[in-house]
């Protein structure tokens, strides 16, 4: 579907993707302007729609592109041999911060996309988000040492509760950021508070 775009030289591909991510991250899907994207990418508008059918297709391609790049980078660094569940959570948090520092614009775009409520892309985004969760949750926690948990607890339910907690915390922080455009998220504080949650759950559920 995107063969024409993928046949471009890498520098031009990067310019277009970065311009799209920057515009979508700053304004959300509905308010993003393809005029601004082509201006930033230094291409003709007709060329953009030669590669992508419409703004929706460009947005979803950028989401898939960013997700794949960041996940590939993450798994190159992720230690799946660590048996301690909470050590893995801390590792995940640390790697997310490293990736954020390495790809700040891309990370910001994916954050904004995660909470974008545009009717044009929301259903497609929800499907993609669920697919990412389904395909990665097992990888992240395969082989953990269940004997470290307190006897008699429902480990599956505990892990689900923790995932809901972190997802809710992440969503809440992004919504607050959306209400204060121009004010950058304090990521150091964000990850420090996440670490406090991890310690709380470890004290509650480990022996």
List keywords for this structure.
76% helix, DNA-binding, 207 residues, DNA-binding transcription factor activity, Homeodomain-like_sf, mainly alpha, DNA-bd_HTH_TetR-type_CS
Level of helix content?
over 70%
Structural class: mainly alpha
**How many DSSP helices?**
10
Gross geometry: elongated
Tally of extended strands? 0
Global Rg: 19 Å
Q: Distance between the terminal alpha carbons, to the nearest Å?
A: 52 Å
Topology:
Blueprint: H1 3-6, H2 10-31, H3 34-41, H4 45-51, H5 55-77, H6 85-102, H7 104-114, H8 122-141, H9 155-179, H10 187-205
Helix pairs in contact: 2-3, 2-5, 2-7, 5-7, 6-7, 6-10, 9-10
Would you kindly provide a written description of the structure presented here, covering whatever features stand out?
The protein is an all-alpha fold. It has one domain. The protein has ten helices and no strands. Helix 2 runs antiparallel to helix 3 and helix 5 packs across helix 7. It is elongated, with a radius of gyration of 19 Å. The N and C termini lie far apart (52 Å). The relative contact order is 0.11. Keywords: DNA-binding. This is TetR/AcrR family transcriptional regulator. It holds the Pfam family TetR_N. InterPro entries: DNA-bd_HTH_TetR-type_CS, Homeodomain-like_sf, HTH-type_TetR-like_transc_reg, HTH_TetR, Tet_transcr_reg_TetR-rel_C_sf. One of its GO terms (molecular function) is DNA-binding transcription factor activity.
């Amino acid at each position: 579907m995107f063969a024409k775009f993928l046949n471009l030289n890498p520098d031009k591909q990067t310019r277009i993707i970065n311009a799209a991510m920057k515009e979508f991250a700053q304004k959300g899907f509905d308010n993003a302007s393809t005029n601004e994207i082509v201006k930033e990418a230094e291409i003709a508008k007709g060329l953009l729609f030669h590669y992508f059918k419409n703004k929706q297709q460009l947005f979803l391609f950028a989401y898939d592109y960013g997700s794949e790049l960041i996940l590939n980078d993450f798994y190159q660094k992720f230690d799946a041999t660590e048996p301690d569940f909470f050590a893995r959570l801390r590792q995940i948090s640390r790697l997310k911060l490293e990736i954020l520092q390495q790809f700040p614009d891309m990370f910001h775009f994916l954050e904004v996309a995660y909470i974008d409520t545009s009717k044009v892309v929301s259903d497609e985004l929800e499907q993609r988000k669920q697919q990412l969760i389904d395909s990665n949750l097992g990888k992240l926690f395969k082989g953990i040492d269940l004997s470290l948990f307190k006897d008699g607890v429902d480990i599956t339910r505990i892990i689900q509760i923790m995932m809901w907690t972190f997802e809710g915390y992440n969503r809440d922080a992004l919504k607050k950021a959306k209400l204060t455009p121009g004010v950058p998220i304090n990521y150091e504080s964000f990850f420090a508070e996440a670490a406090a949650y991890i310690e709380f759950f470890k004290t509650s559920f480990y022996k």
